[in-house]
Amino acid sequence: MEMSCAYTQCSCFTTWKEQTSSLRPLSAAQFPAMPQINVKKLNCNQKLRRLPTVALAQKTDTSTRNEDNSNVVLNEKSAKGSGTSARGRRLLKVREEKRKRDYDHKHNYPAWAKVLEDACRNDSELKAVLGDSIGNPELMRKKVEERVRQKGRSFQKSKSGSVVAFKVSFRDFNPLDSYIWFELYGSPSDRDVDLLGSIIQSWYVMGRLGAFNSSNLQLGNSSMEYDPLYDEDKGFKVMPSSFHDISDVEFQDNWGRVWVDLGTADFFSIDVLLNCLTVLSSEYLGIQQVVFGGRRMGDWEDGMTSPEYGFKSFKI
Length: 316
What we know:
Blueprint: H1 5-8, H2 11-20, H3 34-81, H4 86-107, H5 111-119, H6 124-130, H7 137-151, E1 167-171, E2 178-184, H8 190-208, H9 232-237, E3 245-246, E4 249-252, E5 255-261, H10 268-283, E6 287-293, E7 311-314
Parallel strand pairs: 1-6
Antiparallel strand pairs: 2-5, 2-6, 3-5, 4-5, 4-7
């Protein structure tokens, strides 16, 4: 019986050969257990073949781990290049916060805050009151409450002018020593006091500089259709005409007054003042009447200069 080299070298076959060498010769037909020897042969061959298989599996596992590590590195590099860096994450966070604010503004924004925000588009004064609180309901509420505390009863007073022209009257008016009285539609706010006081101050400054001098009206009496000629010598030699003095502008309730000494200024300075007050009354601050002269108008009380009783003034 011929056997392969691998079979003759097997340890199982060597042991069996030693045990059967002392017995009588047997034929091949007397080996019923030969399949067992084949099984052992196969087991040995399997053991021999298993070694490169395990090594190959270990090599494959190592290669797989190396590939996984390479994929992680590549994924990190691609993630950095795809906008998920620190800057990209910050941008994503900002966009997410903006999206949340927009959602809250659309679904959870109070109706009254929306009304105020829309009103600011056409009301510059309300916009100045709210300032940078627009979009923050709680801060908007605090701004409005603070404004109400400051303004008090005059908070809801109309700021528009009057569509009715004011009345003008004279009562023993002396240009060198007289009051000019202004009757308003309500107690003036600080803004109204500054507005009317600034107009009177500007009028006085112009009069003090000799602006109201009818002796030198060269351009007023000439045609502007062609380039007019101006006589500088005549304008320089004309007799000066200027205001002499003026008091501060005072207010009690809805009345205001200012004492004036027009000096050598001409009376058309009064026309200039009335022209200014006409536009002021129609556009910004309603005026009922203007009175030139007189010592007492309405409920005016001399000597009452306390703000607790509604007294206000504009320093000139």
